[in-house]
Design brief:
158 residues, 15% helix, single chain, elongated, alpha+beta, 5-stranded antiparallel sheet, 6-stranded antiparallel sheet, 13 strands
């Protein structure tokens, strides 16, 4: 910036010139800022993809490990002929990836649905359409369904 003192002397205060209309380094800084933003936006999008907000939340791309670190919740998608759905399996973190427990309930993907681990290795599902459900760990191959009033609306597939 160019400023003029009371005695008529001109002083340069930065890259933008006042009075003569030229904007040399000020415009250059704007262009560089825009270019940097355009270069960084794809990186931010990639870094913030669909990663769960909580380490105990499972998604299709990111299975979640239980608080005890013994189990992993794996979310899968499918289509039952009527609509797309999500469901989950529980596998061991120590051995083969075969399911120790496979949820037979189908949760529609068009509704907001979260798959989470809770205390005592409980598997929780929040469905925006159906409500909240959880399964308690009984033994390595058994998980007990805990129903809510909305459970009668679930479509169970074998």
């Amino acid at each position: 910036m160019r400023a003029e003192a009371a005695d008529g002397e001109a002083y340069e205060l930065g890259g933008v010139w006042a009075g003569d209309g030229s904007r040399t380094s000020g415009m250059r800084n704007v262009i560089i800022g825009v270019l940097l933003a355009l270069l960084l936006m794809p990186l931010l999008r990639f870094a913030c993809a669909d990663r769960p907000s909580d380490r105990y939340e499972a998604t299709v791309r990111y299975p979640a490990t239980s608080p005890s670190a013994k189990y992993r919740m794996v979310v899968m998608r499918g289509n039952d002929g009527d609509s797309d759905f999500s469901k989950f399996d529980i596998v061991s973190t120590a051995g083969p990836t075969e399911a120790l427990f496979s949820c037979k309930w189908h949760f529609r993907t068009r509704d907001t649905t979260y798959f989470l681990w809770g205390p005592d290795d409980r598997a929780w599902v929040y469905s925006g359409d159906l409500g909240t459900f959880y399964w308690e760990h009984i033994n390595d191959y058994a998980w007990k369904n805990i129903f809510t009033a909305q459970a009668r609306y679930l479509r169970q597939r074998s």
